[in-house]
Amino acid sequence: MLNQATINNLLALRLKGMVKALEEQRTNTAMQALSFDERFGMIVDKEMQDREKRRLERSIKSARFKESACPEDISYRASRNLDRQVMSYLLTCDYIEKSLNVIMTGSTGVGKTWLACALGLQAVRNGYSVLYVRLARLLEDLEIAHGVGGLVKARAKLAKVNLLILDDWAMAPITPRGRHELLELVDDRIRCGSILITSQLPVEKWHEYLGEPTIADAILDRLVHRAHRIELRGESLRSTQRPDVVAETKE
User: Engineered SS bond to 201: which of 39, 170, 232, 243, CB 3.0-4.6 Å?
Assistant: First the structure.
């Protein structure tokens, strides 16, 4: 049996996985037949698994996903216009490695937000940092940061995120300062991060939404020309599925 001093030392070193593995080996008589090297290897593996689990939990919490969406549950029925080959590529997260963007458009209820969160979870699984935020809320937060002198810090924090999910693009009017902040944000991420956008508004109308032509040109040039585009179709998933079905049901 492990003495308490050893357990305390392992816990002090934050080796909780090892403590669990040692306790499992102590209570499993079949383990006694294994060699020291085999048992020690299993202990180290348990620690690695425990750390990865905790990393994943922290990263998911930090991402602030709106939906609990899993890539394994993505629906590829024909009416959605969702290309399996494109999605297979996006699920490799190679686009993040290359600092490319993703633009999802479609009417309300077709699953844009859910799909964005599923891609976000896959990115977290692959070790990338992710942040989900509605565009209107982000611009409000940057406006507040500007007012209290924290804008530089806020921009730097966003620039460190590998994948920034901007949901509900063009759902609220944009202010002159909002346009400026959006340009700064997009420009900061050209070679060091990806943006995933969901919007009900077709890309062809984004220039009009952004308003000021020069800034709109700069933003769209940086976003659209470096993006994989997905145009979802079909009826609202909210109206076609029962409320008790746990699947890809939300916008």
Answer: 170
